[in-house]
Amino acid sequence: MRVLSSTLSAWKQHLTLRKDDAGGAPRRIDASAFRQIMREVAAPVAIIAAGEPGQRNGLTATAICSVSDNPPTVLTCVNQNAIAHGCIIDHGCFSINFLSSDQEAIAVGFSGANKIYGEDRFALGDWTEGSTGAPLLRDTICSLECKLIDHTAVATHTIFVGELISARTKSNCSALLYQHGAYKQLAPAMPRPALADCQS
Q1: Cβ-Cβ contacts under 8 Å for 110 (sequence gap 6 or more)
Q2: Number of domains in the chain
Q3: Which residues make Cβ contacts (< 8 Å) with residue 126, sequence separation at least 6?
Q4: 81-139 pLDDT, tens per residue?
Q5: What's the number of CA atoms in the CB half-sphere (13 Å) around residue 64?
Q6: β pairing state of 46-50 and 57-61
Q7: I want to staple 103 with a disulfide (CB 3.0 to 4.6 A). Which of 99, 146, 149, 185 is the partner?
Q8: What is the pLDDT confidence band of residue 171, given thresholds at 50, 70 and 90?
Q9: Which domain holds residue 64?
Q10: Whose CA is closest to 158, among 107, 100, 87?
Q11: Residue 79, in any domain of the structure
Q12: For the whole model, what pTM was predicted?
């Protein structure tokens, strides 16, 4: 069942009907301007992975969000030209592995920046298999094993919707973030002042 179809159709119609202030043609932000805008937004970095050992594929991603907690459902957006794109569809399951701040080298490797592809990327990090066979990375902030329940193409990407099968978390980890074209991490939290210090 395509749970996204009606929502996306309405969304596309809304975009088509938007007019500029003069009542002319629909407005559209230039692609390069849009990328620059989104570079301002700090986002958690994750590895999306799918496939069986020897045929695994994965990529670095930031376009991920929760959808619902009943049942627990998440989505991620993957470029249709990515090798992992077809792998996710073919296997019907995938993982989302949110990286800790000390796993930047894995993010770089799965981004394609160092020209490593396919199964060779999985030499980076410590990988295991979930109950569905989806690859799961150890020592992450959290790793989500998902069953693919829906997917739909929007422009250059496909939105993959997954129902959670299992999840692993690790406490007291600092998340790896991406902002302004660079990997970053959160600064240590400032200690909270004592109550007496807040009183006048």
Answers
A1: 47, 58, 59, 60, 121, 124
A2: 1
A3: 137, 138, 139
A4: 999 999 999 999 999 999 999 999 999 999 999 999 999 999 999 999 999 999 999 99
A5: 25
A6: antiparallel
A7: 99
A8: confident
A9: 1-9+42-170
A10: 87
A11: yes
A12: 0.81
Helices in the chain by DSSP H: which ranges?
5-17, 31-39, 83-91, 104-111, 195-198
Cα-Cα-Cα-Cα torsion 156, 161, 165, 166, nearest 10 degrees, comes to 60
- CATH code, domain carrying 123: 2.30.110.10
Decide if pLDDT at 195 tops 90: no
Domain presence at residue 33: no
Helix or strand holding residue 2 (H, E): none
Quick check: is 185 in a domain? no
Distance CA 40, CA 137 (A): 28
Distance CA 186, CA 176 (A): 8
Backbone Cα Rg of the chain: 19
Residues constituting the chain: 200
> Minimal CA–CA distance to 63: which of 159, 142, 175?
159
| Residue at 23 is within a domain | no
What torsion do the CA atoms of 107, 129, 55, 49 make, to the nearest 10 degrees?
-30
